[in-house]
User: What shape does this take?
Amino acid sequence: MSDSVCEAAPATPPSMVRIERVFGRQRRSGARMTLAAWAALAACGALSVTTPASAAPIDVAKSTVITTSKQMSVAVDGKFKKVSGDVTFDPTKPAAGSAHVNIDIASYDIGSEEYNSTLRTAEWFDAKTYPQATFVSTSITPAGAGKVTVAGKLTIKGKTQDVTVPLTYAVQGNTQTFDGVLAIRRLAYGIGANEWKDTSVVADEVDIKFHLVVTK
Assistant: This one.
């Protein structure tokens, strides 16, 4: 018996060689097209993503919160000297915004330290127990050019009420300003106990006028 001899592999017909070359080029071309397509989609996706507005701190030095109430039918103004918090607001997407405002109760000033001390007592603001009033927005609704309506929860002296306030806003460079007046009833927050519940002496209605400045 003769030794085994390895037979040579049959040559690939020329027609198959041409077909393989064609399909090889198509596969490489298809791969390049697929990569290009994914790259284009990724680029389009990157362009379509909008960076969300970031929270900007309230400028304490430039912001004001002033109250106006009536005592014996005479208007009396008071000012909270310390207000802090942050605002997230994009004029092109106001509904995506939010606001968180903190007010230092002990900073309230009506022009007389004697009266200021009285207002910090338990009958009025009880500043020792409740050192801060807060407002946290729950929605912001566009209301025309430079205007929005903000709904939220206002907490004073441990009592929280749902409130809605119309605002005007302005944007200049990196600075945003917000102005509005919120009408509340002091007795709903327990402000003015015992004899001070008499609204013929101190009216129940109080207007809170605020000017908030934030810089991004």
The first strand starts at residue 56 and ends at 57. Residues 1-10, 12-27, 29-51 have pLDDT under 50 and may be disordered.
